[in-house]
What does this fold into?
Amino acid sequence: MPKEIEMKTIRTDIRNLAIIAHVDHGKTTLVDGLLRQASVFHEKKIIRDRIMDSNELERERGITILSKNTAIEINDPRTDQLVKINIVDTPGHADFGGEVERVLNMVDGVLLLVDAAEGPRPQTRFVLQKALELNHKVIVVINKVDRKLANSEQVLNDTFDLFIELGASEEQANFPVVYAIATQHRAGYTADVGPDLQPLFETILNSIPAPVVDVDLPLQMLVTSLDYDNFRGATAIGRIVSGEVAIGEQVAYITADGKTVPGEITYLYDYQGLKRQEIELARAGEIVAVAGLEGITIGDTICNPETPVPLPRIRVEAPTVRMSFGVNTSPFFGREGVWKTSRKLRERLFREIRSNLALRVEDTGSADTLLVSGRGELHLAILIETMRREGYEFHVSRPEVILQTSPSGEVLEPFEEVRIEIHSEDIGAVMESLNNRQGVLQDMRESSTGTVLLTFLAPTRGILGFRHHFLTMTKGTGVLNTSFNKYAPLAGSVEVRSHGSLVAYETGTATTFGLKNAEGRGILFISPGSKVYGGMVVGENKRPDDIEINVCKTKHLTNMRNNIREIDQRLVTPREMSLDQYIEYLADDELLEVTPHNLRIRKRILDHGERMKLNKKETENALP
Ligand SMILES: Nc1nc2c(ncn2[C@@H]2O[C@H](COP(=O)(O)OP(=O)(O)OP(=O)(O)O)[C@@H](O)[C@H]2O)c(=O)[nH]1
Ligand SMILES: [Mg+2]
It folds into this structure.
């Protein structure tokens, strides 16, 4: 039973925690273990790994994109009470830092996972800093102690140093430590882990504070996530900060501009394992989902309509990169998409910002184009991929960085911390390339396996489009991690891309013969039979300028069959690019056409003559 002290109630029957870490340090795998040990899965039922990574893109990319709630119940041996543990799994990739920042508002403590071989990485710092700012209790979990390169002692020291560097209080820096092998669902108080996760459960019960709340005050609930349900509309997820909420109750929510909107709670849920269960009533300290409040947004406070007092609004850090999203203007417009009008595009993007808080959408001078800003290229790429899977057709421009102005009027640009792991023979090429992009070397170390770890500070502008180049330079063996560091005065000019594009001359179907002619110029993106249009980019030119080629050209052949076979054998396989690679490839005067079935790069100006005229004008203007 909850214990009452003075006015407040200590909900000893609840713990709310989030799992935070750098990307890939094992958060979602650890949640599997917690669910399994709490017997959420019936015996013998086979569960797949990383069960919380439930959306299609997460499974394809092997990363968590959206944070998700789950809950388990365990017995507290000290009180012999069943305790409900609400767990929020969060994404580790830096581009989704905004997502982590806001869900931290739901919890009282965190498990900070640190890979026993890699140690604290840039995103470990970011998420720890946010947790410390909110004064959350932190349990450090040194995970992957089974890795050959694990050095738990060193990693623990580095983690402690990070706490001190981030200004942790004495109490915060005096954190409990648990060692784990998430993949085997084992944990221990030393690196020699036990047979199960019991030590982690014990530490959670002992160290994560039970919510201390006022159930007698009027209702206040902060909305930290939104979900859509075809039957129930928007469901708002968050923590009840005070009071209680019941199904059928008349409530109100307070919007960003201070308006109070009345509504009725038509459904009320909480979490149990992987499911939501309908409940009648929930009280302060619990994490619940409610439906019935149309138009509600993240950051709003659900309250008693008679005493509408808003909770502090959730803030997330400002976006650093933007792209324009526009109605597809290619000659192939409307052939492949279901949703393609400017109205549909606009509706979809403005709907997104209700739940994707770190994203911004702005109208531009043109009704057909919107400006979309996010926390990085991946943040925007995930949105593009999600929309095309929903049937949208549109085009996007090359990403550009968002500048700011300092109070003294100086122009500032975003900088990233770039962490690189490469073989020593690649150091020269990588250093040169980053120097050309205004990257400044901060640190260089040799790893225990003989690879070299380099840390640079570089303007985001220089890093856009760098990944593909980096992988080519290191023949795919390099590891590259970037995370936003700060806004600072403009660095000098950065190296522009060293290649141009091969541009289709006319509309038609690409032929083997036409492509054979183009092949000598660079790398092709299409194969014979592909439909092309004039001004579409069909490959990468080795040289920095663009050239137009007639890839639809046919040759009159006397013995066609033999000749085609012969030529076919000689055509090199075209380069297959992922969405991220297409985005990296884009030049300023190019657009990416996105449809549910195809991605195509095109010149902004499709007409050959007009493009030439513009180029000529630009060259003339550039002359001294
Ligand atoms: N050797 C070893 N591998 C592990 C362990 N825990 C997780 N992994 C592996 O690490 C990889 C990443 O695991 P995830 O659970 O997806 O990591 P995550 O922190 O959720 O990643 P994001 O959500 O994308 O930030 C997977 O291939 C796991 O199998 C561990 O204890 N030992
Ligand atoms: Mg994950």
Observations:
- The chain has four domains: 9-211, 214-303, 404-489, 501-622.
